[in-house]
């Protein structure tokens, strides 16, 4: 299975617009891997895009992608859906008459489909794409699997039950992809030992190199977001062959260089994790 990290940032990209901190200035000067766009992943074997942040156009244009056959959504949050117009852009034929539109398959887990009716006009927008002939929407009900090109995809709810993780099974390989929202999640025993786990890094409330407290203990974000420390505990439970962390927020305040130092520090503790970077390609 060949996986490309299109964007490894979170709700706040790196560099953040108008920000002049050293992390953003370095990202502006050096670009990838110091810069990070919004959260999105592409599974090449399936020509499947997971989530469409606002900057998905730029991500796809700099990628190795030649065709997108499907889009899978993990949840309704703006940083994961607001670039959905790419479905129209890659599908519409504005030259020929009558037009010969392509049609992208859009896969919505059960709760995501419900939330799309409520938030951000997402379902109305997809309905427009269907009406125009740009998309075909398929709802994947809880407990069901999706089969694409010999790969089985099992969407499952996290503890924050409006969000889904995905287990990909291809021959003897198993890949777990969770795009966001690990708060209060406990890995199911069936997920233990996956070959690759892709997870959000979590909030750095404490600097992993200096021990400095970055967020107050009573900061409200800690009630709704998993911390990096909590993410590491989940990783220990998963016992995956390889772990790559993504959804790395600019507001966490760690540069690409510092994250590489964190990898080394954790390796000395026999905790093997990697921090993803934009354009990274992984084969499992």
UniProtKB/TrEMBL annotation:
Pfam families, alphabetized: Lactamase_B_2
Record-annotated Metallo-beta-lactamase domain positions: 48-248
Database matches in Gene3D superfamilies: Ribonuclease Z/Hydroxyacylglutathione hydrolase-like
Superkingdom of source: Bacteria
SUPFAM superfamilies membership: Metallo-hydrolase/oxidoreductase
PANTHER family found in the cross-reference section: HYDROLASE C777.06C-RELATED (PTHR42663:SF6), HYDROLASE C777.06C-RELATED-RELATED (PTHR42663)
Protein name (record): Metallo-beta-lactamase domain-containing protein
């Amino acid at each position: 299975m060949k996986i490309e990290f299109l964007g490894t940032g979170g709700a706040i990209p790196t560099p953040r617009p108008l920000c002049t901190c050293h992390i953003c200035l370095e990202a502006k000067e050096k670009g990838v891997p110091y810069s990070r766009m919004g959260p999105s992943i592409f599974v090449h074997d399936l020509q499947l895009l997971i989530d469409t942040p606002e900057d998905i156009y730029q991500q796809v244009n700099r990628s190795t992608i030649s065709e997108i056959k499907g889009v899978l959504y993990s949840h309704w949050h703006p940083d994961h859906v607001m670039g959905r117009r790419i479905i129209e852009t890659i599908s519409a034929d504005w030259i020929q008459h009558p037009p010969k539109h392509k049609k992208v398959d859009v896969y919505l887990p059960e709760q995501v489909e419900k939330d799309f009716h409520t938030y951000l006009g997402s379902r109305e927008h997809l309905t427009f794409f269907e009406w125009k002939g740009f998309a075909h929407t398929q709802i994947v009900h809880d407990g069901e699997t999706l089969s694409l090109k010999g790969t089985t995809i099992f969407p499952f709810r996290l503890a924050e039950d409006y969000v889904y993780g995905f287990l990909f099974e291809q021959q003897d390989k198993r890949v777990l992809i969770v795009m966001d929202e690990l708060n209060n999640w406990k890995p199911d025993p069936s997920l233990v030992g996956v070959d690759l786990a892709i997870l959000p890094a979590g909030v750095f409330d404490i600097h992993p190199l200096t021990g400095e407290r970055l967020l107050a203990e009573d900061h409200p974000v800690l009630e709704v977001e998993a911390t990096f420390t909590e993410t590491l505990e989940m990783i220990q439970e998963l016992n995956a062959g390889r772990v790559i962390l993504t959804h790395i927020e600019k507001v966490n305040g760690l540069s690409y260089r510092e994250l590489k130092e964190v990898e080394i520090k954790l390796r000395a503790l026999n905790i093997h994790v990697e921090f993803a970077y934009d354009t990274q390609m992984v084969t499992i």
